[in-house]
Amino acid sequence: MKSIEKFADLTNYTTIEGWRDRIFSLGKDLGYERTLLAILPDHNTPMEAGNAFFHSNYSPTWRKKYDDEKMGYIDPVVSHCIEKSTPLIWSPDIFASRKQKELYEEACSYTIRSGVTLPIHGCGGELGILCFVSDTNPDKRARKDILYSIPELSCFRDFIFETSRQFIKPAMAPNETVELTRRELECLKWSASGKSSWDIAQILRCSEATVNFHFANIRRKFGTTTRRHAEAKAIRMGIINPT
Question: Mind listing the domains of the chain with CATH numbers?
Answer without folding.
Answer: 2-171 (3.30.450.80), 182-236 (1.10.10.10)
